[in-house]
Please model this.
Amino acid sequence: MPQRLYNTFCGRCLLKILTAPAISKMAGAFMNSAASKLYIKPFIKKNQIDMTDYKIENWSCFNEFFTRRLKSGKRNPVMNENVLIAPCDGYLSVYNIDKYTRLTIKNSSYTVETLIRNKTIADEYMDGTCLVFRLTPADYHRYVYPDNGAKGKNVFIPGVLHTVRPVAHEHYPVFKTNSREYTVLRTNNFDDVVFMEVGAMLVGKICNYHSEHNFLRGEEKGRFEFGGSTIVMLLKKDVAKIDDDILEASLRDEEFQIKLGERIGIRI
Model:
């Protein structure tokens, strides 16, 4: 179905309708309805989700299942203040940022400035590092703060929601048209970190819990409801060294699978 939508004229016309905000809201309403429970078991089977890490509950709708909680003791964040931790489950790619850098995110090319639409903030991250975490349907869809600190207000960038599946990139710059939200985290150990969540086709709902807020390492920051999801973190120059195995994978153009709370780097 996605192939036909993106590779034919009629399909792309239909896609304009399917990705309209009203359709997104309708799809979201369905995923919060009791009728959507019918999709839970087929979804688990199709995506081969290992449910042993999760609390099995009497979910009232698909979104309750999709944002399911972990069992106690799962995904314990590394608490060493010198360690940079992953804020979520997913597949990690790393990019160096300089004035020539085009960030390849889901096969679309961006500068930091076009990603966050703020030149003043973007300039602060020149010579720094961009971390891109891609969540799959099988991943845990809650995310946490990577350190202790305080955050500013959330900045929402509206956009048309498109699928994060690779076929989408043949015709659309996916991240430019996706709705996204970011904030600046004033962390205790890693300076100011830009933390961005990106939604995807139809629902892709971003649910952040806090506006201005003092946070703790490992504290839950928010969740993604149904829809493909990605988190982007921007680090300033000489703040952290990303672990060698992750960097080596990125040099091979490979994503590195990580789990929430695991070490991904060390403070410089």
The mean pLDDT is 86. The longest helix spans residues 21-31.
